[in-house]
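User: My collaborator sent over this chain with a note saying "see what the structure looks like." That's all I know about it. Can you take a look?
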Amino acid sequence: MSSIILNIENNIGFITLNRPEVFNSFNREMALEMQSALDKCQSDDTVRAIVITGSGKAFCAGQDLKEVTTPELMPGFRKILEEHYNPIIERIRTIEKPVIGAVNGVAAGAGANIALACDIVVASENAAFIQAFSKIGLVPDSAGTFFLPRLVGFQKAMALMMLGDKVTSAEALQMGMIYKTFPLESFEAEVSKLAVTLANMPTKALGLTKRLLNESMTNNLQQQLALESELQIESAESYDYNEGVTAFVEKRQPVFRGN
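Assistant: Without extra context I'll predict from the sequence alone. Here is the result:
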């Protein structure tokens, strides 16, 4: 069985982490397959939204410790970071299509931070997030130290990363870590509904909005205003802008094409 399942339907790329017997923890094969699935979603113009979720009871338990404790399997931490996790995070952030992190169960270590790197994060009511690195004497990776303090604040992020507390989905929602929670029994349906909504929206404008928010992490005010002007002009030249305005004037629902 493939460790990553990619299904494309209704203009949505569903990427499922598929090693349920080890709570979807990453080894080298899975990390490279994940990058390939993201690349396919990026290059396929029919894909207008992406969902990342896990099979079985967990979203992702992070790194498969068997790989790093078995000498003949151990790729080395530099290779794990530079060839596995960093490229995954970079792809999630630079694909100019909305990426939903659909956290169906426990998300720990790199698994939690991959989820938090997504554009919109939703979780089932039985999901949880754990910055598990300190428990084994490591520092966080997968851009956790970049995104988590921006989501929940410096002090809270520091505590969660040092103490390795388990954060329930309800707590994650309350502290602004995620967008919404859904009951377990309706989780897949709610995720699909959200993905369909995004896939039917003006994808180009959503992608440019994503670029703006990415750049806002490091831009000053003047730089951000200049980029807003540039991308507003670019989006105004799109088919979807013309369709949106025309539909508004004609008092009908727009039919966006994503370009």
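A starting point for your reply to your collaborator: The chain has eleven helices and ten strands.
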